[in-house]
Structure formats: C-alpha cells, structure tokens
Amino acid sequence: MAVSDTPSPRNLLPDAIHQAVKPGTALLRLETTRSCQGLLDGAWWPRSRNATTELPALITALTAHLGAITRVGLDASAWQRDIPTRLVIDDQVVHLDSDPVGDGTVLITRGHNDHFTLLVVPPGTTADAAREAMARAVRADNITQAAQILLATTPGPADGAAAGPEA
User: What is the spatial distance between Cα 45 and Cα 54, in angstroms, rounded to a whole number?
Assistant: First the structure.
C-alpha cells in the first residue's frame, strides 16, 4: 500500500463520528501491549449518559476481545440516574456497580479478579478532543490519571468549543 493510500490518523475519528457509526457500535480503543505499565487499559466514547443504552455495545465489543465480562463499575456521577444493578447482554448476566467517584473511568471485570480500567470520554466531547484523549489513554507508558487526561484534552470556553454534558 502506498503511503498516500494510508488513512491519516485524523481521518480515523471523523467529526461526526457519533452519527457516522451504526447505533449499537462501541467507540473503543484498547491498549495493545501486554506490559500493563500504563494506568489505563483503554478508552471508551459513549454517545449518551444512559448506561442502559450504552453498555450493551461496550460489553459485546469487550467480550469479543477479552472474553466474558462479569462486572462493570461505573462512576454514578457521570451517568443518568437509575443505573440498574445488572444487565443481560448476549445471554450473559453482567453485574453493575455504581458509586459517585468522579474519576472519569469505567472498571471492567473479566472472571473474578481480572480488571481493566477504561477512560470514559464524555459524550459531548468534540471529535478532536476525544481522539486526543483516547490516544493518550492507550499509550503503554501513560501515567496520567483519567481525569487529568480529560482536563488536558477538552477545550475550555475560551476555545469556543466546550464539551457540555449530553442527556
């Protein structure tokens, strides 16, 4: 393949990504090394703050890459109310834990003790900011907390493109 045929990284996450992908598709990046040196194992950019709507696609995608997911820990302050205690996804019961921790992550459990921490990019984030946050989260040498990644990559009001919460 010629260099000119290779898609540029900026084209991998288009500005209208939430409209460009099919409903039920998870926008997800996973760290690809087995080093486990970074603080985060990946990043997820849901379309809304409705956990019941967003989690099935995430769990389906993660199950395809990691195996059966048994538990998901959510930051209750980042999601709409009424988070259920469990969901049945692809005939598998997934237990949900929610606490208002405010750390910008979701904790995924495979089996009994195998944990994966994903940065959660807020739904209203611009495509450029989401792209940057997700790229930082999956770096094998990342030692930056999720909340700091989001602060560093989200444009503020002075930039004219603040990412507000989405219902």
Answer: 10
H-type alpha helices, 45-160? 51-66, 127-137, 146-153
Residue 115: HSE in the Cβ half-sphere, 13 Å Cα cutoff = 9
19-66 pLDDT per residue, tens: 444 545 567 878 655 656 678 999 999 999 999 999 999 999 899 888
Decide if 99 contacts 84 (C-beta within 8 A).
no
CA distance 96 to 56: 12
Task: Please give the model's pTM, rounded to 2 decimal places.
Answer: 0.76
Partners of residue 93 on adjacent β-strands:
88
Q: Which residues pair with 8 in a beta bridge?
A: none
128 vs 65: CA distance, rounded Å: 26
